[in-house]
Amino acid sequence: MASGARASAPEDSVRTVSPGRRGEKGVSAPTGDSVLVGTLKSAASPVRAVAASPRPVKGKAGREAARRRLQLLPGAQAEGEGEGEGEGEGAEEQQQEEEEEPLLSVPEEDEEEAQPLPPVCMSPMRGMWRNEKVALYCDEVLQGCKAEDADEAMSKYLSEKLKLKDKWFGVWKTNPELFFVKYEEASIPFVGILVEVTCKPHQSSSSCFKVTVSVAEPFSSNIANIPRDLVNEILEELEHSVPLLEVYPVEGQDSDIHDIALALEVVRFFYDFLWRDWDDEESCENYTALIEERINLWCDIQDGTIPGPIAQRFKKTLEKYKNKRVELIEYQSNIKEDPSAAEAVECWKKYYEIVMLCGLLKMWEDLRLRVHGPFFPRILRRRKGKRDFGKTITHIVAKVMTTDMVKDLSSDTLLQQHDDLDLALDSCYSGDTVVIFPGEYQAVNLALLTDDIIIKGVGKREEIMITSEPSHDSFVVSKADNVKLMHLSLIQQGTVDGIVVVESGHMTLENCILKCEGTGVCVLTGAALTITDSEISGAQGAGVELYPGSIAILERNEIHHCNNLRTSDNSKSTLGGVNMKVLPAPKLKMTNNHIYNNNGYGVSILQPTEQFFIVAEEALNKGAASGDKNDDSMLSRVMQNLNLEMNNNKIEANLKGDIRIVTS
């Protein structure tokens, strides 16, 4: 079931090859985020006078009609005039067809300008809860079928809905490449045409879903100056048959059409997010259970349980897999005879790249991103250890070094001055100290901390600003036995990983400001973290994430305004100040912290089952309400079982509450 269409559809595009057609290539029509969020939008007004080079129209009459509507690029026009001198009329006409790149012009007064597209039906899938989506796909559509029968189940579901109405109006949205050989993607994300749709019964459930379309009146498009003759010509080439999934029913028709619109969106969503090309190639005892897991994954991405930057990494990996699969299919289709040795090698290279991406996606899906992606070590650098001569060096990071900067250092201190923080970190060996003076810095090497060093600012922590590099996945990552960051500000910009990730070993953050944009501080399994006198804010998940088997000590910190989701629906997200993932239980000691104004809970404890939740929830709620009471025997027992010690913390004004055990 390795369909080229399934592989080709990017995250923000609409599938154009219908279910059941194996090995067929297709084009995809980008339409924003309509596929993932399940909402359909049409342009309120057409794009005006776009710059694009349309495909040549067949036939002499067609060419003359196109010339009346198109203006030539000045460069191409001049080039055509110069090169055409002295040649025959036939050669000049052929040269114009092959070399000139015409642009769409504003229609003349006697030419028909396309009207704005009408709004398409809004999909009710956007408002569905996850259990409703699970019931729809697992119970109503798939009905417990196996992966190899999923195509047939989707075809049967869609066929039944199409019987409701055989004729209706819709917007045909397709790839601009079908109409134009040169265009600006920003100005033409897709070509939309208002069409009248005629559905015909299908001979078998495995046939490709296509419908017969004709241009509807009034002539309407999202591109005002697109020639109607060009549209008619393209439709004639396609024999007026287009993939059904490219057509979006418009509003203003009866309720049956809304049911058809929902069915189309159900099928699009299935192939764009739930289906994987390897599904029918591997045995799966309970395929509907796998689909349910993928629905949960999608819902977790939508409601922010999985923070936006981490979710974006998953989407990019999935899109890359699909694109690479299309590349392989297209490459194979261009080999007309027996492949040469070079072609065979290239096929194998592309295949193994797909296999690697496939394996990575499986790990993401199986663990549902609950373990911090991308499931391989972030740091591949080896430890340097100590210098051969056993001395340590203090690295001064400043544009200019003065005697006042080093007056407090002992006379035998070895110094090295850098104007770049990255160079200073690259020069470090275990035992070194990096002293940073006020300024704004960036350092890729902060994501490669393997040696035991101290990085500290001199002056006010607000004045030592270290910002992340947006093009990199990680900001600060450590696997050193003991690394310290002191008296500075970390400002996250665009990186998708946690602002600080302790992969292994122990890290200390002292008197630091952490302004998160992605996820917060993440302590992975087996790692340890100590945070004192610091401030954490702005995380899209929890401010501090403790993974199973990790250790953390939090003292005198402020954790606020976390779970700062970029989604319209954060009603289901529980993450807030501190989140513990229990199996095995992490160890957490919290003393004199202020956790407030987070969109989730102040402290959330993620339990894998409900067994412990029933016994402990009431006691935890009492303990939270009374502000860490130590004399509550049940609360003490619960915290002891969880290796959780809380003393004199102030947890208040968190949107969901103070402390909560959450079952996964």
Automatic annotation (TrEMBL):
Keywords: Acetylation, Coiled coil, Cytoplasm, Cytoskeleton, Differentiation, Phosphoprotein, Repeat, Spermatogenesis. SMART domains: CASH (SM00722), PbH1 (SM00710). It comes from the Eukaryota. Residues 80-114 have a biased composition (Acidic residues). It is found in: Cytoplasm, Cytoskeleton, Spindle. One of its GO terms (biological process) is cell differentiation. Residues 387-547 form the Carbohydrate-binding/sugar hydrolysis domain. GO terms for cellular component: meiotic spindle. Its main location: cytoplasm. Gene3D superfamilies: Single-stranded right-handed beta-helix, Pectin lyase-like. Residues 42-56 have a biased composition (Low complexity). InterPro entries: Beta_helix, Carb-bd_sugar_hydrolysis-dom, PbH1, Pectin_lyas_fold, Pectin_lyase_fold/virulence, SHCBP-like_N, SHCBP1-like. The keyword Coiled coil applies. Pfam families: Beta_helix, SHCBP_N. Residues 1-122 are annotated as: Disordered. Testis-specific spindle-associated factor that plays a role in spermatogenesis. In association with HSPA2, participates in the maintenance of spindle integrity during meiosis in male germ cells. Interacts with HSPA2; this interaction may promote the recruitment of HSPA2 to the spindle. This is Testicular spindle-associated protein SHCBP1L. It comes from Mustela putorius furo. The lineage of its organism: Eukaryota, Metazoa, Chordata, Craniata, Vertebrata. The gene is SHCBP1L.
